[in-house]
Structure formats: C-alpha cells, structure tokens
C-alpha cells in the first residue's frame, strides 16, 4: 500500500445521501463497507467527520445563537455522526475507538496523540470527533490537526466530486480537473480545498491532501493503494 496510516475526512453533508437533513443509513453503510475493505489490508485509519448535516456553528450565529455556543453545538453534531459511523463499522466486524476533543463519558474518550496512535497500531479504526475542542475552528482544521498528531501519511478528503477543478464542476461544465497541484499554486489560485488555517497546517507539515469521490465504490481502496484517483495536493506534485 502507498499509505500505511491515513486520516479520512468526511463532511457531515456527505452522510445525508439523498436526504435534505440528518443521516442516510444506506450511505452510512456504503461508507462503512468501503472503510472495512481498506482496514482489512492493514492500513491504519483515523476518521474525522463534520457535523453540517445536523448543525453548523456559523449557521447558528446567523439564527441568533452566540458564536461560541453555536460552535460547541456543531462539535456535538460531529459526536452524533461519529457514533453513527462507529455503529456501522462495528456491524462490519471492525474494532473502533471513538476519541473526541470533547470527552463525554461514557460515549467517547478524550483524544490524545499517544492514545490514538496506540489504538491505530493495535489495528483499531479511530474516529475523532468534537473538532479541536475549541470554538472558532472548523472540522477541516481539526482533521489537519489530528492528521499531524497521529503522524498520518496523508489526509484523504472524501467528497462527492472526483477531485479539484478550476471551477465548480457541478456548475461550470468547462471546469478542468487538476491531477496534482502544489500548496502554493492552490493558495495563489484561491481554490477552496480547506480553510486557510487547515491548509497552512498541512503545508507547513508537508502533509499531502488527496481530494477524491468517496461515493464511487472502490475509490478509497484505490487511493490508499497509490493509484491516480482524485487530486493530489503536495509540493512534490507526484502521485
């Protein structure tokens, strides 16, 4: 395998599937099967999921919530999504540990890099919820932080499109896909890959980002195998 340890970032919206809100359990099961296939190869997998299918901190601020309270509500939404994915993965026969920036006994343990790495080395899938544990940070930033903490070989950002394009391919049919792009080029072109804090953290730690279509069966396995799937963001610009 090209990558021995990865951090898989999933958006909360991806769990909605065909729904307009909440969790589509068919989509959840699909993701669990994809992750199980990769885990069986021996690849160590950490996972961070957003909470946008349930609640976003910025959304709450727009509706009159205090920003700090809204962000904590968003963090709790990631805990709910993580619990749902944990259940689906365990149904596939995997052993899962749920850590969090927000320790909620008995649901999840407080995250630490040492604990997460130990579980990964024991062959367990590790889901990390609760963002960074602090308001004003996105789950993109949380995924970058957790990837650095667990010494991941790459961040795999699962989306509903098959990579990074010059424009939104769902809106612009002339958009051209990048096979590879450097951090500096992506920044100069103002491509919306991750928020700036997350992107800077990846760049400074030379952590590759692969953006790919999580909804296409078998793609996750091809990505960790080193096949040319999605778009690679790295200074070397080589798959």
Report on this structure.
Helix 1 links the parallel strand 1 and strand 2. The model has no long low-confidence stretch (mean pLDDT about 95). Helix 1 packs across helix 3 (about 65-90). It is globular, with a radius of gyration of 17 Å. It is an alpha/beta fold and about 240 residues long. The chain has a nine-stranded mixed β-sheet, sandwiched between helices. The protein has a two-stranded antiparallel ribbon with strand order 7-8. The protein has one domain (about 5-235): Carbamate kinase. Helix content is about 35%, strand content about 20%. The chain has eight helices and eleven strands.
What's the β-strand tally? 11
Major β-sheet, in short?
Answer: 9 strands, mixed
- Per CATH, which architecture? 3-Layer(aba) Sandwich
Shape: globular
Secondary-structure element pattern, one letter each: EHEHHEEHEHEEEEHHEHE
Provide a count of the helices: 8
- Residues in helix, %: 25-40%
**CATH C-level label:** Alpha Beta
CATH superfamily: Acetylglutamate kinase-like
Class from helix and strand fractions? alpha/beta
Count of the separate structural domains:
1
- Unreliable runs, pLDDT <50, ≥5 residues? none
Question: Could you tell me the mean pLDDT?
Answer: 93
Rounded Rg: 17 Å
Order of strands in the sheet with most strands:
4-3-5-2-1-6-10-11-9
